[in-house]
Amino acid sequence: MSLFRILVGAMLILLTSASALPVAQESSKTLDAKPLKSKPGLRRIFRSMAELGDFAAPIPIPGGQRIVASVTGGQITAEGSDSVSGIFKGGLSIIDIVNDGQSIVNNVQTFGTTTDGTPFLITEIGLGTQADDFARLTIDIGGRYAPLVNQFVLTEAVLATDRKSVMTVGYVVTDK
Q1: Is residue 135 within 8 Å of 173, Cβ to Cβ?
Q2: Fewer CB within 10 Å: C terminus or N terminus of the chain?
Q3: Which residues pair with 146 in a beta bridge?
Q4: Are strands 103-114 and 41-55 parallel, antiparallel or unpaired?
Q5: How open is the CA angle 72-74-75, to the nearest 5 degrees?
Q6: Distance CA 54, CA 125 (A)
Q7: Which tens digits make up the pLDDT trace of 85-120?
Q8: 154 touches 135 (CB < 8 A)
Q9: What is the CA radius of gyration of the chain?
Q10: Quick one: DSSP state of residue 118?
Q11: Residue 156 and residue 136: Cα distance in Å, rounded?
Q12: What is the DSSP letter of 131?
């Protein structure tokens, strides 16, 4: 997967978050754009496989449908010394499919423990299409893994063709 596609996904997430920002009262005010000191990079930090339970019947929502499935287990595998490995004990996946199936909005929460027994909660919120799903991931965890809480993590997820599992790859955004 290209860096460009991941960054486009991140921009979609950031742009949808921007709707909550305050609007300037005077249109004459402008912001001075400053060039980045360095171009952001991505470093792969984990891969995971989440096992899905039964899917609920599609729920009608304005502009589409909501798909809900439980996360029944799985594992996360660190790729680097500053990441985490462990198991998923459970969770919930909520996917909204809108625009005649052309767009998705996902909201997934999973919980589990690391290989050394530290509990964690992972929240994934993203946008995309059924072919390309990009999300921002937040990790609630303590102990030696606490630095992960402050990382900006992007993910790409792929649903298995049998719809029984989801593979996710996580990247931390770096300043290099």
Answers
A1: no
A2: C
A3: none
A4: unpaired
A5: 155
A6: 21
A7: 999 999 999 999 998 888 989 999 999 999 999 999
A8: yes
A9: 18
A10: -
A11: 9
A12: S
* DSSP line for 49-80: EEEEEEEPPPEEETTEEEEEEEEEEEEEEE-S
| Exposure on the CB side of residue 88, measured as CA atoms within 13 A | 29
Residue count (the chain) = 176
Decide which of 70 and 10 is more confident.
70
Question: What is the rounded CA–CA span in Å between residue 130 and residue 97?
Answer: 8
Task: State the sign of the Cα–Cα–Cα–Cα dihedral 84, 88, 90, 96.
Answer: positive
What single letter denotes the amino acid at residue 97? I
Q: Which two tokens stand for residue 50?
A: 């989440």
CA neighbor of 91 nearest in space, from 124, 66, 114, 67 = 124
pTM higher than 0.70? yes
